[in-house]
Sequence to fold (231 residues):
Amino acid sequence: MKLLSIDCAGKTAAAAVSEGDHILAEGFADAGLTHSQALLPLIDRTLKQAGVAIGAIEAFAVTSGPGSFTGLRIGCSLVKGMALGRPCIPVPTLMALACNERESGRVAVALLDARCKQVYLGGYSFEKERPEVAIADRACSLEEAEALIAALDRPAVLLGDGAGLLEHCCRGDRILRGAEDCVKGAGIAYAASFLEPVPPERLVPSYFRLSQAEREYQMKKEQKNGSNGLR
Fold:
């Protein structure tokens, strides 16, 4: 099966064309452009490098969250538009990122900076090649993330743009900092091979928390209700 995998959940963008477990071509963009500018040209270049037309793609995989709200919407909307009824595979962003370290023999702890002193965190092990959940994906405070990492009973590797916020957790050989901080197309394709496809209309982002606008609205509503004595 020919699979097109894409990511634009964070600051960078990635794409890969694969067939079975073989990567035909892989692309990456980190030029400071918006995803609306960078993603389609990246996909076009990757398809051309693979020698595969978009019509020959049999399924699509996309990072579905957590991540940038705008990036997730762009990625899922684009895949829906390209799929035209073909199967789509939503891939958890943290699982795709963890796949960068699937051969390390360690628990891969993927960390994305969620701002406001929070991170998106998920831990995966790969003892039998299949990604197995060691820490369930979540949005949490830096303190909670540190406690979850400390509680692991196996060696771990931290990766992602949120790993720098918890670099003080790296001690000796037990917890290391990974070299690859960005989601790669090959990692999306690898994770997708263990996940179930859905029809395009069921492809939706997983945000993991309210947007800033929603949080501010909720706070104002709570403050107003509090001042009125309402519960």
Remarks:
- The mean pLDDT is 92.
- The beta strands are 2-7, 13-19, 22-29, 59-65, 88-92, 107-113, 118-125, 132-141, 156-159, 175-177.
- The first strand starts at residue 2 and ends at 7.
- The two ends are 54 Å apart (CA to CA).
